[in-house]
Write a structure and sequence with these properties.
The protein is mostly helical. Helix content is 78%, strand content 0%. The relative contact order is 0.16.
Length: 89
């Protein structure tokens, strides 16, 4: 794995682990605080910038990563919006 791939892969994997771990353990996203969700969104946006800047010859993996990061960004945005709802846990 190249240095670039490691640099992008590790933050993205950590972000998915945090979001997945929070949902599996029953901790509400709101309990993590808006700051954490905003930081997650910033990290994902940075990952997206790097992926878009990468060369296009990655056997489809770059495109798949872009698609997954976009999905993760959408989920974080939905989580932030949900935390604004009354009765959010």
């Amino acid at each position: 794995m190249t240095t670039f791939a490691r640099r992008i892969t590790i933050p993205v994997m950590l972000m998915f682990a945090v979001l997945f771990g929070a949902s599996v353990s029953g901790i509400a996203v709101a309990a993590l605080g808006e700051a954490h969700m905003n930081h997650a969104q910033n990290f994902l946006n940075s990952a997206l910038v790097e992926l878009n800047a990468a060369r296009h010859d990655k056997a489809g993996h770059r495109e798949a990563a872009i698609r997954l990061v976009n999905q993760a960004i959408s989920q974080v945005q939905a989580g932030i919006a949900a935390s604004d709802q009354p009765g959010d846990h």
